Amino acid sequence: MRSTVKTPTSTRSWEDLPPGPAPDPMQLDNIKTQLDLVLLGLEALAGIGSEAMLQAAADLKLEAVVSDRVALWRLRQSNPLRKSSGGRKKLDVEEARALVLIVCHLAKQYQELIRRAVALLEQMAEQNTEPHRTALLGDYLDTFSNTYQERMEEGANVSTDLLNQLALKLLIDLLFYSGPNGHRRLWLALLGRAS
User: Fold this and answer.
1) Contact at 8 Å (CB) between 160 and 131?
2) Which of 195, 153, 53 is nearest to 110 (CA)?
3) DSSP readout, 48-77?
4) pLDDT mean across residues, the chain
5) Scanning 61, 67, 84, 103, which has its CA 20 to 30 A from the CA of 54?
6) Over the stretch 109-122, which tens digit does the pLDDT of each residue have?
7) What's the Rg (C-alpha) of the chain?
């Protein structure tokens, strides 16, 4: 499967994400799902939307992959867990690599907020207190749960506890993806989970 995506020549980060052997369709579905969930976590925490994602694509010179809202929506809709209205698109490896760079670029921009949320989570764990009792974590968990239930096919059938666990795991993952070489960490995690 050859891609027609132009790679950003000025971005060293692109070379840090070796495409490796082409994933089979099931592995690619897992990668699509994980990428969309990480973006959902970032959306829920930072309140970002498609404009911020498109700006990140422009900053990274990835407009060939994510040129507008429709292209972004189609990439996000490639997640097999999402409710679909017929816009499902096959995500290729180059598009997945581009989304990884966009996620990590945004995570770096919101690193302070991510760190504050993770520090609060640690504090709540030490005090044996529910995370939703703090404003930041409570808002994050509510937004994540509501958005997940609204967008995902099985959203209404997933318990609040499971959604909270997923949201908190994604929050911790975002901390790692916001740091140095976060794009490489995310890419390797995606490839590892997909196999």
Assistant:
1) no
2) 53
3) --HHHHHHHHHHTT-TTTS-SHHHHHHHHH
4) 85
5) 84
6) 999 999 999 999 99
7) 16
Torsion angles phi and psi, residue 152, rounded to 5: -95, 145
Paired with 28 in beta bridges are none
Cβ–Cβ under 8 Å, residues 105 and 59 = yes
Q: pTM of the entire structure?
A: 0.85
134's tokens:
């703090």
- The structure tokens listed for 82 are 């999402």
Question: What are φ and ψ of residue 82, in 5° steps?
Answer: -75, 150
**What dihedral angle (degrees, nearest 10) is formed by the CA atoms of 111, 188, 122, 118?**
20
Eight-state DSSP code of residue 6? P
Burial 65-76 (b: 16+ CB within 10 A, else e): bbeeeebbebbb
Could you tell me how far CA 39 lies from the centroid of its own chain?
Answer: 3
> What are the residue ranges of helices labelled H in the chain?
12-15, 25-46, 50-59, 69-77, 93-109, 111-126, 135-151, 160-177, 182-194
Question: Domain ranges in the chain?
Answer: 24-194
Q: Which of 23, 41, 42 is nearest to 97 (CA)?
A: 23
